[in-house]
Amino acid sequence: MGLVVGVDSSTQSTKVEARDRETGVVVARGSAAHPPTEPPVSEQDPTAWWDALVSAVGQLGDDRSDVSAIAVAGQQHGLVLLDERGESVRPAKLWNDTTSAEAAASLVDDLGAPAWARGCGSVPLAAFTVSKLAWVAEHEPDLLKQVRRVMLPHDYLTWRLSGQHVTDRGDASGTGWFDPSEDRYRPELLGAAVDDADAWLERLPRVLGPAEPAGELSADAAGALGLPVGIPVGPGTGDNMAAALGLGLRTGDLALSLGTSGTIYAVSPVPTADPSGLVAGFADAAGAFLPLVCTLNATKVTDTVAAWMGTDAPGLSDLALQAPPGFRDVVLVPYFDGERTPNLPDASGSMAGLRTTTTREDLARAAHDGVLCGLMAGLDALGDAGVDISGRVHLIGGGARSGAYRQRCADLRNAPIVVPDIDEAVATGAALQAAAVSTGVGSGQIADRWDLGSGAVVEPAAGAEGPRVRNAYAEAAARLID
Fold this sequence. Notes:
alpha+beta, 18 helices, 24 strands
């Protein structure tokens, strides 16, 4: 059998890729939608993820018989609570559910931001799993009595595949109770959210190493998916960690991802601990670290502005590219659904610099710039935290298909960027992990063999005035914080 399957289970959908294990060539793809969510309450039934996985894998057709391994990358931070029968006691709270903002603030008040940064590399925000568990403990305490397993979204799918209650250090590092610098759970951090932390430690998944199989594909799962029984199931990881694998990132390289959320991150050989909370000190999926900044508002912003203007995302991109060179004073701060970085869960968006001479093209460019400027501020925060950011930016996610996002990313960075050849970095990274688990070959070697990270280079335009645009954005955003 010569194929491996990588799974990307995101907020919006499940996507799968079957790749040749030796060459990395995509042989087949499948996808299926998840139920939509609307923050501040963003919840999904975990069984919907499994149903979507079954549907997406089914689209691989006859190629399923040649699959030799599978691995799952999932949306980070979500809280899955199962009872002794393996059923959810409530819908999973997702990363972009901001109802846990007050719980996060209480956690930080109780222990202090420096203690959290030292203990798990990050300061909890509403997105973090520990904040969501604290919210359930406060608002639904009777439900906690039924809980026997605590999982992240990718853990849940790995469990459905293999029957094993396991996770990996990359995704575990986004919970708020796992220390990536020492690769261990921190009961004192878990105990900030729930009583009797030692008892709750028994409900957490076992943390696997980067190339340690979770187990074998069970007969029940194989029957539902049409895959061979007993093939290895990778440890899986979080979506951003999988994307780093799929891009073949090396130290100094950055990934800027534009999807439902926006993220910018880099592979680092050393951990970070930023008490300001701007930089999350995650682990990666290959034994190193993945310091990351996440914003809540990304492509949904340009989708929304496009609808306001009577067009669609490609139409808005075309308008933005038609704007004349130079800065036209229009700035959009896109906190449409609140914001995660900076931590402003109750914020709303704002537009500044409007004049009677402002054009549709100016508004379209400002919408793209607003999303990107928030992430460029995150790039600066990574540098301030001691992360090597000297390499090139790799633009990925659904927004990378937009000509305006591509060009404005290069303009605002004031340096060339790379748009990778691969379409789905997360699914690619999961497939790479499956290949590593099934062959025993290191992920770096496989990335080189598959020629990951190559792509089109976009140069900044003449007269783009990226630094001036970023400064104006920073001033407008600061006014909202004040």
